[in-house]
Amino acid sequence: MKAWIGVAVLAAGAAFGYRHWQRQFVQPQGDSGATSSAMARVEARDIQIAVKASGEIGPAEQVSVRPEINGRIAQFKVDVGDQVKKGDLLFKLDDTDLQIERTSRLTEIDVAALLVERTQRDFERAEKLFGERLISKEVFDNTKTDYALAKKNHERAEAALRLVEDRLSKTEIVAPFDCSVLTRPVSVGQAVSGAAGFNSGTEVLTVANLQEMIVLVHINQADIPRVNAGQEVTVEVESVKGLGMKGVIERVAPQATLKNGLRGYAVRVALKAVDPRVRPGMTANVSMPIESASNAVAVPLAAIVTEREGRFVYVKHGAGFEKRIIDLGVFNYDFAEVRSGLALGDVVALDPPKQLTRDSSAKSGKPEPAPTTAAKDSSRR
Description:
Helix content: 25-40%
Strand order of the largest sheet: 3-12-16-14-13-17
Structural class: alpha+beta
Radius of gyration: 40 Å
Distance between the termini: 16 Å
Number of strands: 24
Largest sheet: 6 strands, antiparallel, barrel
Number of domains: 4
Order of helices and strands: HEEEEEEEHHEEEEEEEEEEEEEEEEEH
CATH architecture of the largest domain: Beta Barrel
């Protein structure tokens, strides 16, 4: 199956490669029997195969800021586009009612403390009198119980105060990390609900760290086996002409999803150094190299003929050409790496020659007529 896939890729690239080489790398020759109309020289090249995909740039950390308690917006300290540090105040809720409640709780604590002092004196006196057998055990037990209840009431009042103070601390919402304000959908004076309430609360702000950005791309299931976390990639931003950045694959989703009718996997790419011109929502083109060959013996795809017995090229030999079997390595839509069968400096035909002077792929070694152009094209199909 893999062999037929390789054949299909070679066939698709041959037509494109032929036209490309005709314009830039082809050496025209006269049509004189054994010669080919176009030839190319085998040269050393770097060949790279890459998976390409488009995705949307977004912040690595983005938070929807919602208050924990119900309230009314009293003031904003930030607006859209502002940059804030971790711990800086973002906005504040009206705390008037909570301040009144806090005062009430403080009063309750004072009253409870006075009651504890009185019942403690009564208990200590009763304990002494009971030891001298001057009061009954029932009277002593009652004073002991009153003292215990007074202490419990004091503890309950202190707990109620702590709850109020905790709610008061939640009226001031601070930045969770160094960030920029992306949105602010509410205004001063608007009532908002807490995160524990209906629909998880009201979104007051959206903040994100724009110094750390990612690109989310959808990779075809056929390519995903060759994509792994930790791979370095190249990212080009459509909105900023000429801008290229480096990135690294952070993770590959374990579960396939369907997007635009294509089944594939979500891949998260982290940008290494974010250009200040890059903003969330921009489209990025990601190129993920999956295989490469450096300084390889390279031949144009247009020169390669594929048949059932293998792949071969027509190499210039004297006044004519010889048919030579080759072994391919890495290839893209322009060139293919030749692992054996060719040497640097060899000249190959981009069109089938009319007559072979030698066939190194045949056992007999006798010259034979070369296939016609139609035969070559059909072999690629």
